[in-house]
DNA sequence: TATTGGATCGCC
DNA sequence: GCGATCCAATAG
């Protein structure tokens, strides 16, 4: 498998959001390898996007959003869940892509243990669940995704563009009308 | 300085 | 529908 190079993350954010569908995210934590295919993403833009953390300047929490594209931006939401994002654009911009859901590939038993569930359907179908299953936490904030790192993203198989849908984002109160959520359509 | 709401999840 | 309970924006 080929690691996605850093230059990819510096292409326009909505392009990255769309192109990350089908890519493979893999973590190696305490010698345990887990991975999955990215099936749902959301863009958060620095311009004209009231839901973006970076929209009103840098804080301690969002500082890595202003790094060069290709870094992991991880934050704690509601005091108890982590969200995993990929930083995009060039240094100082402040855009990112949230990974909302993956389809489990490797290490499914490890993911079940981390998630404390025996199910498969509810293993990685939400941003907090993805982080818990992959073992991602604040230690990985700022990590490079294109090199030797506990979190790496690989190119996936090419997707049929007819299978990709786009609509409004989930769980936000501002910027609801923006069509920045991309996902792979479920087959009948 | 105190309060409120948030890119969520699991259980009631 | 509600509670868990950290971070940061607002004075709700």
Question: Could you characterize what this model shows?
Answer:
The chain is α+β, with helices and mostly antiparallel strands. The chain is 12% helix and 29% strand. The protein is built from 3 helices and 8 strands. Strands 1, 2, 3, 4, 5, 6, 7 and 8 form an 8-stranded antiparallel sheet that branches. α2 crosses α3 (127-134). It is globular and about 40 Å long.
Structural class: alpha+beta
- Please outline the major beta sheet: 8 strands, antiparallel
- Helix share bin: 10-25%
Cα end-to-end separation = 29 Å
Beta strand count: 8
What percent of residues are in strands? 25-35%
Shape: globular
Furnish the topology, listing elements before pairings.
Blueprint: H1 13-19, E1 24-29, E2 32-44, E3 72-77, E4 81-88, E5 95-104, H2 108-115, H3 127-134, E6 151-154, E7 164-167, E8 181-184
The chain binds a DNA duplex (12 and 12 nucleotides) through residues 42, 44, 51-53, 56, 59-61, 75-81, 83, 85, 98, 100, 122, 126-129, 132, 169-173.
